[in-house]
Amino acid sequence: MNKTRTAVGDKKRQRSAIILLMTMVLLGVFPLDVLLPSFPALAEHFHNKPSDIAFSISLFAIGISLSQLLIGPLSDIIGRKGLLIGGMVVAIVGATGCVFSTEYGWFLIFRMVQAIGCGSFVLSQALVQDMFEGKERDQLRILMITASGVFISVSPLLGSVLQQFLDWPGSFFLFIALALGVLSKSFFLLDDYHVTHHPNGEIFRTYQRVLSNRSFVGYWLIAAIAFACHFSFIVISPLIFMDQLQLSTYEFSLTLLLYGAAYIAGGIVARILANRLAPKVQIVLGLALIFCSGLLMLFFSSTFELSTMTVLIP
User: Is the pTM of this model over 0.70?
Assistant: First the structure.
């Protein structure tokens, strides 16, 4: 990519850049996890079953995934700043539409609009590359990964607080406020980087070359399997813990807090093993652990009554 790299120099500008990036990391996980404790309230508001509300989470994930396919190439064409600001506007429109939706169909449509706008958060890694250099860049990336795990852990608990005081629209109000902050900081902080002019069809040819690489496709599928295990649990967790086990929103949030702690611990162990084991060995161990955990969960479900521990332990 041909662009002008502007390293963040003075301390004040550096702090502003870090705040912007960390807020983007938060908003990247916020719309999914913070809404989980509000499943019963959403089901009551739209006169639907909680299992139907779970579809909105899946739809959001699909929308953000599809939008990210175009965000990267488009950022080379129209620049990071314009694309991020545009994404924030779209996401805010979608979140506002969700708040004022009176029918579940419209709620799903606006959730998809919000997801498309949230796809611009993938630019956080590109902004780190543009704005930082050397050790600062590496340290910030580690900080962002760690923060992502922490945000995943505490988002349901935050969602419970918002649900108690502001009902289900509370999570959207907070999202809108944070998104406005990102929009404002992006406008005043980011530079207009030089962009690359691609020939017609170059974007699609690039994806064709990437998808024809068997090694990439193999690693991509492995990552997809791992994410599917995590995401499927997140989507179904309100149905298990609140609908079937009748946990309160706070009890449910604390349960997911334990899950999030295990998620963070797994990342720490993975970083330690990365210095001692070959990548292929790490992948095999990870897949074996996922497989054995699935078998253990199947055994628990067929042998014991459904409980918090029979779900959380595997």
Answer: yes
